[in-house]
Amino acid sequence: MMSNSPTDVNGTKRTTPIRESHDGEFNLRLYVAGQTPKSLTAIANLKTLCEDHLAGRYNIEVIDLLVTPQLAAGDQIVALPTLVRRLPPPLKRVIGDLSNTERVLVGLDIRPRSPVLK
Amino acid sequence: MQALEKSATGIAGLDELTFGGLPAGRPSLICGGAGCGKTIFAISYLVNGAVKFGEGGVFMSFEERAADLEANVASLGYDLSDLVAKKQLAIDHVHIERSEIEESGDYDLEGLFVRLAHAIDSVGAKRVVLDTIEALFSGLTDTVVLRAEIRRLFSWLKDRGVTAIITAERGEGTLTRYGIEEYVSDCVILLDNRVTEQVTTRLLRVIKYRGSAHGTNEYPFLIDADGINVLPITSAGLGHPISDETISTGIADLDDMLGVKGYFVGSSVLISGLAGTGKSTFGASFVNAACERGKRALFFAFEESPDQIARNMKSVGILLKRHVEAGLLAFEAARPSLYGFEMHLARMNRDIERFKPDVIVVDPISAFRGPEFEIHATLVRLADICKSKGITALFTSLSSSGEAMSDSDRGVSSMMDTWLSLSDVEANGERNRVLYLLKSRGMDHSKQLREYRLTREGVHLVDAYVGPAGVLTGTARLVQEAHERNAALERQQATERRRRELARKRESAEREIAEKRQALDMEEEDLRRLIEQEEAREEVIGSERSELATIRGARQ
Asked: What is the pLDDT of residue B539?
């Protein structure tokens, strides 16, 4: 379960420092458990997606629950990976490896839900 | 070969039923409909674990929030926040709201594992409850992943060596709505809440218990201020110890009738009779006698309130209040319609466990209304419970008029050791009470029909008149007895008369004999006199002749 690649830098808590939040600023948290392929895919997908759609107005916090398991209950984490939009309110959650970009954008309210989906 | 290790639930009755508790280190499934008490069962398992066995527990709730849960079980006397503060219990509320979650790509439930592992580690838990894990199915859409993850979760729990309870809602025609019983195959317990004739009965059944014997019946259970109480079936067999000792019936004459000075200790006694034949009085006499000898007695009243019984029994000289004050006697009164039979039984069992009486009285069993077989089953179990604990149980039963034996009596007769039948005899414009012993196992008891009276000093037995005209009681008996006395007197007088006549006859005969003898004597006397005269005359004649000869000779 635990990844055995200690050299990977994604195990650190923050990849981007939190900046002063202002309107439109996206404060995102990605929960993972160890360096599993799924975790790595999710991190990569998230970075690409943010750069494409939220360039300059986001920060990402990656939390490894194997390091800080006590944080799981607070954000009601069940499935992994889970992306939590902490800002702007309301709280939003997207689960999975974020491979479906369209669903992530909808989930994060970046793009309105298409009428077909409704 | 080592027997399956068990984790005691601490729930009264359930551990007996499963011969020790849940399978240790394995997950068990508790399923049932809404409001069956699944959560209460699960939380009781954890609280008992912490309080009684010093084992930490984790409660992972998928439905109720920790605060709600705490409030809900406070009525059972459980203080969850205290246990949490003492690090004996961890509560984690898992909340999943589908509308808040967007799914994008592959995921697993590792988050749940992390949370569970963290909670287990934080209190060193040996016991885990997942209540109700199927809530995940309504929060997440990918059921294939869910099923695989739940399966993985259960084997993970096994690997961790914790004993887990997984609760699940009952589905249509299946044990659980999402079929998770497939993954939890070691122990499955089904709870049910059945309403029959507007009366609810909670029932528990162990459907499956791999590697262990278990009771297979449905067992009633109670949830009240004392927690959960499952009715044990310890006495399913007939192996209970028996006693040669007897305990007084409280009625001296009845003790004599039984031939062994009372009921056997630990036996079941049935007193059946019509309304107003004094069934309760017999029960109260028994209780009174027991308490006077320092025994503990429990009186289950289903028709009268305790105060009413005490007052009514005072009128026949049985003072019960003093025993209550001395702590030897306790009343448990409830309307029969308050619960189902099973519930009553569970309640009575709990009262018996708590009070530990030597004798009990159930007055009356006929107050229970419902399907015959259920009443019967309830009573058989109650009688068994008493027998297994060596408690002498006295049951009263109201029989319907005109029938010597009502259906319910017939049903319970087989389990009764002593059966006393009280009845009314109606004749000559009055009612009189008679009793007889229908049966009494192992006693050389009187087979006689006896009349009895309820007096200010209690119950008294009178010899009933049994004659060619049948049984006579009351004034009829008195009249008949007077008749008999007259007849006897007459017979006596007749003999007397005959004796006098004979005496008279003998007297007259003797007089006659005397007279005859007198006559004979007189005759004899006459004869003797006659002979004397004759002899005198002969002499005279002889002397005269010689005189004459002399005279003649001289002249010649």
From this structure: 87
Please report where in the chains the tokens 């948290």 appear, as a residue. Answer: A29
pLDDT band of residue A15 (cuts 50, 70, 90) is very low
User: Which of B100, B111, B118 minimises the CB distance to A79?
Assistant: B111
- Residue B168 touches partner A, C-beta closer than 8 Å: no
The beta-carbon neighbor of B140 closest among A42, A73, A79 is: A79
Query: What is the CATH T-level fold of the domain A12-107, as seen in this structure?
Result: Glutaredoxin (3.40.30)
Q: Hey, where are the domains in chain B?
A: 6-230, 246-472
Cα B438 to chain centroid, rounded = 16
Q: Does the beta carbon of B523 lie under 8 angstroms from any beta carbon of chain A?
A: no
* Domain pair B6-230 / B246-472, same fold: yes
Strand, coil or helix: B90: strand
Q: What is the dihedral of CA B525, B526, B532, B533, to 10 degrees?
A: 160
Query: B296-337: per-residue pLDDT in tens?
Result: 999 999 888 889 988 989 998 889 899 999 999 999 888 877
* Closest-CA distance of chain A to residue B113, Å: 8
Pair type for strands B163-169 and B125-131:
parallel
AA letter at B458: G
**Chain centroid to CA B250:** 17
Within 10 A of B505 (CB to CB), how many other CB atoms are there?
Answer: 10
Indicate the domain borders of chain A: 12-107
In CATH, B246-472 is 3.30.450.20: no
Buried b (16+ CB within 10 A) or exposed e, B489-503: eeeeeeeeeeeeeee
- Picking from B95, B108, B117, the nearest residue to A76 by CB comes out as B95
> What is residue A9's DSSP assignment?
G
Asked if A106's CB is within 8 angstroms of B102's CB, the reply is yes
Which pair of structure tokens corresponds to residue B94?
Answer: 């898992």
Which tokens is B15 given? Answer: 């551990």
Is the Cβ pair B107, A95 closer than 8 Å? yes
B109 contacts on A by Cβ (under 8 Å): 78-80
pLDDT digits (tens, 9 = 90+) for B391-404: 999 998 887 655 55
Smallest CA–CA distance, residue B103 to chain A, in Å, is 5
Q: Which long-range contacts (CB under 8 A, 24 or more apart) does B212-218 make?
A: B212/B4, B212/B6, B212/B18, B212/B19, B212/B20, B212/B23, B213/B19, B214/B17, B214/B18, B214/B19, B215/B16, B215/B17, B215/B18, B218/B192
| CATH architecture of structural domain B6-230 | 3-Layer(aba) Sandwich (3.40)
Of B148, B153, B134, give the one whose Cα is nearest residue B106: B148
CA distance B139 to chain A (A): 10
pLDDT score, position B188 = 92
Length, in residues, of chain A:
118
Residue B102 and residue A82: Cβ atoms within 8 Å? no
